């Protein structure tokens, strides 16, 4: 079970879903805060869902206020970076770049991709945390190679 | 697990930087949570905040409550750089900026605005481990005596650490200690530092409450029109202070006075917000008459706290005294009466002194209102001699629970302002109810909107009635307070009032309480709550909530707060316009002053 957990985690890193920052978070976890990473992730997904919906609304309006979109995305990028959501972060950067040049089509496309990555990560992490909890606390703190 | 109050091995070795009191501001909850965790791991005492305004309120209320501030650059309510400016000006604390944005221009902006450091997100714990260096460095720079800096700085840290070791339980003593420490240090530094001053890279002079009081007394004595820096300097007789320091300070002071609407120098003597330095228990009120306002304004504690912070930039710890239901009995005006040569028309708010100001109160709900009304009534009374005496007496007695109302001759008849003697108007008149928070924060909150209206409306009349010439101070502040909500004027307002930084003493605890009052669950622990590590000030919708481990903010309260603000802002603007007071934004020349002094 524990090995399974470790494998899942390793794959997340290998596939680029997570990066070093996630490891940092794990190191903050200890006996007194055994579920810290999960708590942060939960908070992140909750907050980012809100951001996503804001962006969605802004895009649907069709007016393409790039400044505002960029602002939203900046926030999104910030939190994604903080938890180490690597692929999501990449999409954010691309989105902002499209905003910068005023490419609406690019924004829409990237946003779609971003949502996809976000959803994928969420699923994978949920899976991971669930397993980790079952496996026991020790495993979650281990650094991936 | 980490016990913030206990530092490993502190008994024999120097636990510093453990216990460093950090205020972290970021609108991103994920980042905030992560940072908090990291900082706690570094054994720092962390307070989180997701809104800049709240952060400022906190800082103002607890002048001595934090050692360092870490703030995000991009925040919805206020630009991080603006916050940085305010903090630098008003509190002179080191501020670290952070952002996911690592572009050179932004980093440069951080530098020019005076940030002591700039961290790129994602922030790693290693970067946070060393932030204490900025605290030490700043202390060294502030102190004018290079030689004694290490010792005093060390002492101070020691002091803080000790306080921290107490588990943050006894904020009063700690802040008092710090205050005393700081004051002592300042004095001794100023005392033996004449030669060094010139040879050292000139550190920024921190205009502490006492210093400012001395200044104001000197100015009053000479007469505002005739006060020249040289003479003021001589009268003040403070070692290490140069004519230039006095000159620039005087300039700011003059502008402030002018802004008050041509208040005569007499009023000037009222010495804004300088809390009576002499009464350590009161701590520097920094002219927060907000408390009195609060009492008068029956504003919910939180709003008061916030307003105060916003408007004045002087967070007087004294302002918020929890459990001030007894306020009416003990409203105390803190004055620097001893310092002021002139009789200030200090208004005493005695709980019972009469309800002349009833009109002001009618928006106010419940018990708070009652108290406040009484206080207000009391405030109106302008009996300088009596006031002074009373204030003196009350000052002493009230320390612990009454709202300290800074009454200066400038008392504003307006419900909110009346209390404050500070030269800097307490913007948050409505916020004054802070003191009452303990008892009925929720109700107070509810009342927030209403009372403010009443108060504001009654302002004009009161101003006319006010013999104490206080009013001028207040309106601008009021505007400030409310505007702060919008984040523009607030900064301006703050800078003016905050130009005079003061080491807050006692007030800190009290103010802290004020701020935190929002959540009902907060009531008890509040007394010294500002510093506890577990406090989180989150602004769900504009209200400050103090929570001990979880953020629980009654949703309605939050909303209410928001609304109140906007209402008040409108009111204030209207009021101010009516009164012919210029809106704050342009008013604050102090900003210029402060900027010059911002160490980059």
Description:
Chain B: Transcriptional activator that binds specific DNA sequence. The complex is a heterodimer of chains A (about 140) and B (about 600). Chain A is an all-alpha fold and about 140 residues long. In chain A, about 80% of the residues lie in helices and about 0% in strands. Chain A has a single domain, classed as Four Helix Bundle (Hemerythrin (Met), subunit A) (Up-down Bundle), CATH 1.20.120.160. Chain A contains seven helices and no strands. The longest helix of chain A is centred in the C-terminal third of the chain and has 32 residues. Chain A is elongated, with a radius of gyration of 16 Å. The C terminus of chain A is likely disordered. Chain B is elongated and about 55 Å long. Among the domains of chain B are: about 120 residues, Rossmann fold (3-Layer(aba) Sandwich), CATH 3.40.50.2300; about 50 residues, Arc Repressor Mutant, subunit A (Orthogonal Bundle), CATH 1.10.10.60. At the A-B interface, helix 2, helix 3 and helix 4 of A face helix 1 of B.
Q: State the separation between the terminal residues of chain A, measured CA to CA.
A: 18 Å
The top-level CATH class of chain A is Mainly Alpha
Q: What's the mean pLDDT score of chain B?
A: 56
Architecture (CATH level 2) name of the domain at 21-142 in chain B: 3-Layer(aba) Sandwich
- Give the biggest sheet of chain B: 7 strands, mixed
- Mind summarizing the main beta sheet of chain A? none
CATH fold group of chain A? Four Helix Bundle (Hemerythrin (Met), subunit A)
Distance between the termini of chain B: 38 Å
Note poorly predicted spans of chain B.
1-11, 145-201, 263-566, 580-598
GO biological process, one term (chain B): cytokinin-activated signaling pathway
Family (chain B): Belongs to the ARR family. Type-B subfamily.
Domain HTH myb-type (chain B): 201-258
Biased composition (Polar residues) (chain B): 519-532
């Amino acid at each position: 079970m524990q090995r399974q957990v470790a494998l899942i985690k390793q794959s997340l890193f290998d596939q680029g879903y997570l990066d070093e920052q996630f490891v940092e978070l794990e190191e903050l976890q200890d006996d007194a805060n055994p579920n810290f990473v999960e708590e942060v992730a939960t908070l992140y997904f909750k907050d980012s869902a809100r951001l996503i919906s804001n962006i969605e609304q802004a895009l649907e309006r069709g007016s393409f206020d790039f400044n505002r979109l960029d602002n939203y995305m900046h926030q999104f990028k910030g939190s994604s970076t903080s938890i180490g959501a690597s692929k999501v972060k990449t999409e954010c950067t691309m989105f902002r770049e499209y905003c910068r040049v005023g490419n609406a089509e690019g924004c829409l496309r990237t946003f779609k991709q971003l949502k996809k990555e976000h959803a994928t990560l969420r699923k994978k992490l949920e899976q991971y945390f669930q397993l980790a909890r079952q496996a026991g606390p020790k495993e979650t703190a281990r650094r991936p190679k | 697990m980490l016990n913030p109050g206990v530092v490993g091995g502190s008994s024999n070795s120097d636990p510093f930087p453990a216990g460093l009191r950090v205020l972290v501001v970021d609108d991103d909850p994920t980042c905030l949570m992560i940072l908090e965790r990291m900082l706690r791991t570094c054994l720092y005492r962390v307070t989180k905040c997701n809104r800049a305004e709240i952060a400022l309120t906190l800082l103002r209320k607890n002048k001595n409550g934090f050692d360092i501030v870490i703030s995000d650059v991009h925040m919805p309510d206020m630009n991080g750089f603006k916050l940085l400016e305010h903090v630098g000006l008003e509190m002179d604390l080191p501020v670290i900026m952070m952002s996911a944005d690592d572009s050179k221009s932004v980093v440069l902006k951080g530098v020019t605005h005076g940030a002591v450091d700039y961290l790129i997100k994602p922030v790693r714990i290693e970067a946070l481990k060393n932030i204490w260096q900025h605290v030490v460095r700043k202390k060294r720079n502030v102190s004018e005596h290079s030689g004694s800096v290490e010792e005093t700085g060390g002492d101070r840290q020691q002091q803080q650490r000790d306080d921290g070791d107490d588990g943050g339980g006894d904020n009063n003593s700690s802040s008092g200690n710090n205050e005393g420490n700081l004051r002592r240090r300042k004095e001794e530094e100023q005392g033996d530092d004449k030669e060094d001053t010139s040879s050292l890279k000139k550190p920024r002079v921190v205009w502490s409450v006492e210093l400012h009081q001395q200044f104001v007394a000197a100015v009053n004595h000479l007469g505002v029109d005739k006060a020249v820096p040289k003479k003021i300097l001589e009268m003040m007789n403070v070692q290490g202070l140069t004519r230039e320091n006095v000159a620039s300070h005087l300039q700011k002071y003059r502008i402030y006075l002018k802004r008050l609407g041509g208040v005569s120098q007499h009023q000037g003597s009222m010495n804004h917000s300088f809390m009576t330095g002499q009464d350590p228990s009161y701590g520097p009120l920094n002219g927060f008459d907000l408390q009195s306002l609060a009492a008068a304004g029956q504003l919910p504690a939180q709003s008061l706290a916030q307003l105060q912070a916003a408007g004045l930039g002087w967070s007087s710890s004294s302002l918020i005294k929890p459990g001030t239901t007894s306020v009416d009995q003990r409203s105390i005006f803190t004055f620097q009466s001893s310092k002021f040569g002139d009789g200030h028309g200090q208004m005493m708010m005695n709980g019972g002194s009469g309800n002349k100001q009833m009109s002001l109160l009618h928006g106010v709900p419940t018990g708070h209102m009652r108290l406040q009304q009484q206080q207000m009534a009391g405030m109106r009374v302008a009996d300088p001699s009596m006031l002074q005496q009373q204030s003196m007496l009350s000052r002493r007695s009230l320390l612990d629970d009454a709202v300290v109302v800074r009454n200066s001759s400038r008392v504003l008849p307006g419900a909110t302002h009346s209390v404050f003697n500070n030269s800097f108007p307490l913007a948050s008149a409505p916020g004054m109810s802070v003191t009452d928070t303990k008892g009925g924060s929720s109700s107070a909150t509810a009342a927030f909107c209403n009372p403010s209206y009443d108060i504001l409306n009654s302002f004009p009349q009161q101003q006319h009635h006010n013999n104490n010439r206080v009013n001028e101070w207040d309106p601008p502040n009021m505007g400030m307070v409310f505007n702060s909500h919008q984040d523009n004027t607030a900064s301006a307002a703050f800078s003016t009032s905050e130009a005079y930084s003061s080491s807050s003493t006692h007030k800190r605890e009290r103010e802290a309480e004020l701020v935190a009052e929002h959540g009902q669950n907060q009531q008890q622990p509040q007394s010294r709550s500002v510093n506890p590590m577990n406090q989180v000030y989150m602004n769900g919708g504009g209200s400050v909530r103090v929570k001990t481990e979880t953020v629980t903010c009654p949703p309605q309260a939050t909303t209410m707060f928001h609304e109140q603000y906007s209402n008040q802002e409108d009111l204030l603007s209207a009021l101010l316009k009516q009164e012919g007071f210029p809106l704050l934004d342009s008013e604050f020349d102090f900003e210029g002053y402060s900027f010059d002094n911002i160490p980059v």
